[in-house]
Structures are given as C-alpha cells and as structure tokens.
Amino acid sequence: MQVRDLMTRDPVTVGPATSVEALIDLLVDKGINGLPVVDEFGRVLGMVTTGDLIHRVADAHVPSRDSIWRESLYKSVFRHDDSEPNPAEGVTAGAVMSRNPAYVLPSDDMAVAARLLIEHRVKSLPVLDEERLVGMVSRLDLLRCLRAHPGCCNPFKRQD
C-alpha cells in the first residue's frame, strides 16, 4: 500500500510568522500533534510539534518536580496573568519549528513511512510531491491501514 492511499490530504498548515499562541490553539482545537510550516508556494520549511513547544517550556523553567513542571507549563504556555509577561508573546512558528523534517513521497510504500516515523521519532510526516506539501501521514494512519487491510502486510510474522 502506498502513502497516497492512507495520507491525510489538505492538512492544516501555518506560515513562519504564525504566533505561538495561534499554534497552540490550532494543535489543541484540531487535536493534532504537529503542524507543517509552509511558505507561500506550499513548500515545507519545517514542522512544529507539541513536543517542540513542551521542550521549550521545560528548557525555560527546568522544574525539579513534576507538579512544579505542570504549573510552569500551564502558566507559561496555556494561560498567564495579565500582570505577568507572556513568554510566548512575539515568538513565531519560524523560531520554534524543526527545520528539514523527514518526509515521504505519495508513491512511497507504507513501510517506508513506518521506518521514517520510527527512525526520526516523530508522530507524523509531511508528504511532498515536487517539493510541495500534498498531505500528512501519521502513526495513527498506519494503524488504521493495518486495521482496514490486515492482509496487506503482516508486521508480526516472524522473518526466519
């Protein structure tokens, strides 16, 4: 099965000038783990993931206990007191994105996508056709494919 058969078409994207506040809103409201950052021609410049944003908070606060970390995360990223400066204010997708993300082609086999997801430790990959974003493929997409087409491959069969 090819990536084009299981990818999400017309994914949500952002531009490099998108604010971190808008990124958080999109990630939470859409229930997604990552957003491709694209230029005006649809070329992928990078990816912003929930992990990228969480790492930023953790790196900025270096809390010693889990409860302190959660409080720091909540205050720094999701809500803030108007009397306190918002640390995310003025920060954009272009500043926090991971550059040169791994990607797949629509014609790649789903096994290629699975391997890249594992090797790069990501939850989703952009699907590019002639350098332009045409979709996204995620770990969940691969599991849906395995459920819908159990005979297409058997990843649990022993290779003797």
TrEMBL record:
Pfam families: CBS
Keyword DNA repair included in the entry's annotation: no
Gene Ontology molecular-function annotations: kinase activity
This protein's UniProt keywords: CBS domain, Kinase, Transferase
Domain CBS: 7-64, 97-156
Protein name listed in UniProt: Histidine kinase
